[in-house]
Amino acid sequence: MKTFLRAIIISLVFIILCGLIYPLGMTGISQLFFNKQANGSIAKYNGKPVGSELLGQAFTDMRFFHGRVSANNYNTYTKADKIPDKNGKTAYDGVSSGSANLAPSNPDLAERVENDMDAFLKLHPGVKKDEIPTDLLTSSGSGLDPDISPEAAKIQIPAISQATGISLVQLEKIVVHNTKGRTLGIFGEPRVNVLETNMEIAKLLNITF
Amino acid sequence: MGILQIVIILLLIFVLSIPVGKYIYKIISGERCFVDPVMNRVDNLIYKISGIKKEQEMNWKQYAVALVLTNLVLTVILFAILRLQNLLGLNPNGIGPMEQSLSFNTAISFITNTNFQSYSGESGASYFVQMILTCFMFVAPATGLAAAAAFLRGIIGKSKSLGNFFVDLTRFITRLLLPVSIVLALVLVFQGVPQTLSHNQTVATIEGKMQDIPLGPVASLEAVKNLASNGGGFYGANSAHPFENPTPLTNIITIISLGLIATATVVAFGHMLKNKKQAWVLFGVAAFLLVLSVGVTYYSESKGNPVLERVGLNQSMGNMEGKELRFSVAESSLFTGATTAYQVGAVNSMHDSLTPAGGMMAMWNMMLQTAFGGKGTGFIYLLMFAILTVFLCGLMVGRTPEFLGKKIEGREIKMVAIAILLHPLLILIPTAISLITPGAAASTSNPGFHGLSQILYNFTSASANNGSAFAGMMTNTVYYNVLIGIIMLVARYLPIIAMLAVAGSMASKKPVPESIGTFRTDNTIFAVTLLGVIIIVGALTFFPALALGPIAEQLTLR
Amino acid sequence: MSKHEKKSFINKEIMLKAIKDSFVKLNPKYMIKNPVMFVVEIGFLITLFLTFLPNTFKEQDTNIQLYNAIVSAILFITVLFANFAEAVAEGRGKAQAESLKKTRKDTKAKLLDKNGNIKIINASDVKKGDIVLAEMGDIIPNDGEVVEGLAFVDESAITGESAPVLKQAGSDFNSVTGGTKVKSDWLKIKITAVPGESFLDRMINLVEGASRQKTPNEIALTMVLVSLTMIFLIVIVALYPMAQYSHVKIPVSTLIALLVCLIPTTIGGLLSAIGIAGMDRVTRFNVIAMSGKAVEACGDVDTMILDKTGTITFGNRLAADFIPVGKNSMEIVGRFALISSLKDDTPEGKSVIELAKKLNIEIKPEEYENNKYIEFSSQSRMSGINLPNGVQIRKGASDSIRKFVLEQGGTVPNDLEGVTAKISRAGGTPLVVCADKEIFGVIYLKDTIKPGLVERFARLRQIGIKTIMCTGDNPLTAETIAREAGVDEFVAECKPEDKIDVIKREQAAGRLVAMTGDGTNDAPALAQADVGLAMNSGTQAAKEAANMVDLDSDPTKIIEAVEIGKQLLITRGSLTTFSIANDVAKYFAIIPAIFTLAIPQMKLLNIMGLASPKSAILSALIFNAIIIPLLIPIAMRGVKYKPMSAKAILARNMAIYGLGGVIVPFVGIKLIDLGLNPLLKVLNLV
To answer: Which of helix, strand or coil describes residue C622?
Structure first.
């Protein structure tokens, strides 16, 4: 019985210490010293928040670079997506993350890749099937991957150049400018942040909204 | 480059485990340590409030009772909080109460250090709940470490006492988990992990659409999640989510924190035993198993998916489905190996989309539970297989087997047998039942052999108290919530109690002096034999199931 | 040991009986004691059922009925093989017991009542506490102690030793065993055993294996085997629905075949045979172990306590050298020593004659025939001969001879002191030889170590056993013998109760102690020791206290007992390892076989290239069955044991039984498959 009482008290002690004091304390310190990061690393365009530097976005405009396949459309939606259909379902039903979890053997995966591949080849004439970088046609784990590989960016340049009128060289420069190398030259993969790259294009095109 | 990434990170884990192991040894033994002047005050305050007499020693039964009772109390509290989360405040995103069976599953999941999540953090848990879960991420692994400390004292020590559970629990939290988590959390915030109480933000994008940006007190949870073998993510995508694991640097830190404490426990064991060679033998066996699984996974993942190759998609980058670009295939493979070997359960890629061989290695790690394993408990499993090996070897040299100078007899073997038997029982039988129960089998999201793999993986994860998942499967049903809940519960406490019993009985034995006729357990022969026993007894048990799941899937993939 | 090993372990008689017993043992009531084989028997019953009703599970396979029949036949044979192994082991014990039983014929006993009247009753009616009379030619009815009388008793029935032994009331040789025969004179015996529980009865039970109880290690091992069996049971039970889900059809008999292959049938079938055979090996060595536990404990012995006298040395001080003093030569000393010993019947005296012979010192004995022999007495402390011419030749303790010489006006050579002191220091006894007033020299009497013991102690050290010698001698003498024999420690001036202290001291340090003893005052120490080996020639009390009795009364046998104990454990461990290691190959034979039909790509796992699925399964199953009888010889004789360090033993056995256990079945199954496949083609079973 004494043990039971001790068990109850020590449980409460740790709930207060680790469940309240610790996270609240960390929140206080973080807000004070790392305010931007602690609040989601919000990316601003013309002073207005347009996304997070760390999260990808669904781009459909041909003037912009497109990101990787996302199972949740990057939590990006339009007003229409929130209107329930006949069954009461909405195209967007709240923030989420993750992928479709398709197994390598799942026929749906091959079908999706095939469809995406056909669509991509149509939009990017002159590109051969096996030139398409794998990351562009595979779904990211989070559905929020902010990056694509430099190859995946480069292969989109001709089509974007055509849509925007920005020269190939200029676009190439933008991509290189937004390419991050491996950390310490060893870890991770070289990558291009799609949102930041597109913001640079938008600035160049003087897009306002 | 990939191999270099893997080798450097593994080496960092192994090297860092040496000082950390020494530090853990001091926590267990109570030896003087540089943090004492500060921490003694904190600890004494906690003891005073809770009415704990730190000198009071416990025998194995008292220790087990204290452990189980404390965990029980916490489970009940957590269940209540989950059910009432809509009323308890700090819920800026207006999340409703958690369903009954899901609350049952979640409460057990977090107290057992499993962190199997059938809910998604973004839509299923209030900030208050996320903070309370953070607390469980301290208590559950500290419980495992305390059990390991007691176990080690028993099999090594000369007294019948196994220590004091409350003291062990407190010391592991205040001296190890909490301070390291604070540092880690700050690094994570610096790298971009949110830490705020404000609600999710909605922004207008440059394409004129809207995007919801999820926020919350993420970093404080994230730090301890990885450090202490928890693995339950703030968000559904876990460590693949850019807000949980934003950069290659955080990825390295995460992988190191996955493995550090469990690896260091082996080093601490060497200090306790005053026989480092013995610890290195166990270290070598566990490290071999870890490297083996990472190696096979990396090989298979970098080969890519033959099906997509046939479709025409270039696979030179490897299997990118379900992976994040900023983490290379190599580091994702390493993450998969580490999270399953160390029984953490965090993921930085979707395991469901791993190549079958890669997915099999993840399962293999959880089936063996001995590639370092979970905080504390993994090491107990390793020692359990060591006891079984010692038994066979001891007979083979013609003596009643001894381990660490204590005779291994019927009673110990019985307990070890129960613990080893339990794992296949809790994995294979539920898998079999679920496969022939139409409603349960329908939860799988992938057809064919992979469907079997999904069910097998999830039960394996539950029984290993790992918590990672082949997440495409719909596990949030009453059937799975209850069944997996029970599996996690039994798999956690029965082996711990059995092993405390072994520790208790070993503690009361007279040590046998060593002679040339004694079979030594700190040499290569023992290491190789131990490896053989682990692979034959541990892995062959699951061979038929693996053959029908991932092996069949891999062989038919084209 | 060697002579027993060479004997064939089986003969026709035992064979026939064993075959019969293998069927008797099929009784499930008996089988359940061996859980592993019980599972095989259940499997057999199920496949048998499916042979007659092949449609129970609606299996659509060609010739499923025939297939089921073959599987059930192999399973049946597997069980029989295991039973056979046990029966053979028991049979060998029984054969020995039979010969013992012959001595337990129904005899009559002469019961003495209070008034000394003799009443003839049946031997089986003699109760504990009764006094019986046994005269020349009588068979002693039961175990007891001699309370009066002295007689020679023929114990050959038990010990096989034909020379009769002297039994005497009040001595250390006062215990008699039921079934032995009085050869001379008479004895009054107080019976100490209950009818049916005599030493002979217990011995018969033990060698028959009737009273065999599982030893602690055996229990622990059984636990491992049972849990392995349960694990594989889970695996197979779970496999059926899994296969169904993946649309793989596996016949039930194939699942049972897989189960039987995976569970440790090899060791399960041989385990009790190994135990019985271990006891049997001890028995054949003329040592009776009171329990299997005692034999097993032998393997764990860390410290061995040995008496010096009788165990390490012959106990008699024997002449080792003649050392002259003064101006005398060795020949002269030898000559007078020889003369003084001509009529000396003591071992010392005889040894002087032997030594003289060896040194070619010759005299004509007939010249001394009529001389007067002066016997040794505790007053004079010398013995010798008086020649007809009055010359007194003496040999004896140094101070006595010195006094004897000085009394007659002689002188003591200066170097005598030095010689005797040197001999004493070396642990020997100096006997000074003189004639009248002249001292010639010294006979060096030395305690001699039994031949071969030095090597055996070296062997013991190799396997990590510490030896402690106990002796009543002074420390100096004790040290010399200890050094020569190569024992690790010695206790000098040791009283019987000191032995207990030594044992307790060693036990407190966590060591397992073995000792030998024969006298009544050894009994407490024998009881205290973990392994106590009593001499059959010893007292009843000693035999009761010990857990092993050596019928040959050879104290050094404790060393062999230890080796047999170790061998017993090693055999068990090695065959267990072999059995478990076999699973690897069996998996690679059966798993691809059962899946290939539904998943053709599984062919890749068929690394042995077995001809067809059915052939693969049956080959594995046949291998699993025949390995049991093939290993019976190893189970019976025990794994070869050579004293070496634990590490070396492990490396060796791991290579043979661990690695071998992985490789052998690959080869075996492939070979069986090669032979079996054409046969199955004929039977249309592909």
So the answer is: helix
Do at least 3 CB pairs under 8 Å connect C with B? yes
The answer to whether the CB atoms of B248 and A183 lie below 8 A apart is yes
Chains that touch C (3 or more CB pairs under 8 A): B
Counting as contact any 3 or more CB pairs under 8 A, the partners of A are: B
Nearest by CB to residue A101, choosing from B122, B130, B350, is: B350
Q: In what order do the strands lie in the sheet with A76-77?
A: A76-77, B210-213, B201-204
- Chain B residues in contact with A57 by the CB 8 A cut-off are 205, 207, 211
The minimal CB distance from B556 to the residues C239, C465, C601 is found for C601
Distance CA B352, CA B348 (A): 12
Q: Which of C154, C307, C518, C550 is catalytic?
A: C307
Is B305 part of the contact surface with chain A (CB cutoff 8 Å)? Answer: yes
DSSP symbols for B36-88: HHHHHHHHHHHHHHHT--TT--B-HHHHHHHHHHHHHHHHHHHHHHHHTTTTS
ipTM reported for the complex, 2 dp:
0.94
Q: Is B457 on the interface with A (CB under 8 A)?
A: no
- List pLDDT tens digits, range C195-245: 777 777 777 776 666 556 777 888 889 999 999 999 999 999 999 999 989
- Indicate if C307 belongs to the active site: yes
C160 with C175: CB under 8 angstroms?
no
Contact assignment for B398 to C645 by CB distance below 8 Å: no
Which residue in B has a C-alpha nearest to residue C238's C-alpha?
A: B432
What tens digit of pLDDT does each residue of C262-296 get?
Answer: 999 999 999 888 888 888 888 778 888 877 788 88
**pLDDT tens, per residue, chain B with 558 residues:** 889 999 999 999 999 999 999 999 999 988 888 888 888 999 999 999 988 888 889 999 999 999 999 999 999 999 999 999 998 888 988 889 999 999 999 999 999 999 999 988 888 899 999 999 999 999 999 999 999 999 989 888 767 789 999 999 999 999 999 999 999 999 999 999 999 999 999 999 999 899 999 999 999 999 999 998 888 889 999 999 999 999 999 999 999 999 999 999 999 999 998 888 999 999 999 999 999 999 999 999 999 999 999 999 999 999 999 999 999 899 999 999 999 999 999 999 999 999 999 999 999 999 999 888 887 778 888 888 999 998 888 888 888 888 888 888 888 899 999 888 999 999 999 999 999 988 888 889 988 899 999 999 999 999 999 989 998 898 899 999 999 999 999 999 999 999 999 999 888 887 877 777 777 888 888 999 999 999 888 778 899 999 999 999 999 988
SS3 C534: strand
- Which residue in the set A48, A101, A191 is minimally distant from B325, CB to CB? A191
Measured in angstroms, the CA of A144 and the nearest CA of chain B are apart by 7
Size of interface A-B (CB pairs under 8 A): 388
**Beta-carbon-side half-sphere exposure of residue A117 (alpha carbons within 13 Å):** 22
3-state secondary structure of C46: helix
Expressed in angstroms, the distance from the first to the final Cα of chain A is 67
What pLDDT score does C666 carry?
94
Which residue of chain C is at minimal alpha-carbon distance from B456?
C242
Closest residue in A to B167 (Cα) is: A10
Chain B: touching chains (3 or more CB pairs < 8 Å): A, C
CA angle C235, C239, C243 (to 5 degrees): 165
Q: What is the CA radius of gyration of chain C?
A: 34
Sign of CA dihedral C266, C269, C275, C281: negative
The one-letter amino acid at C565: G
Nearest to B543 among C220, C580, C587 (CB): C587
The identity of residue B271, as a single letter, is H
Sorted by where each begins, the domain ranges of chain B are 2-201+210-273
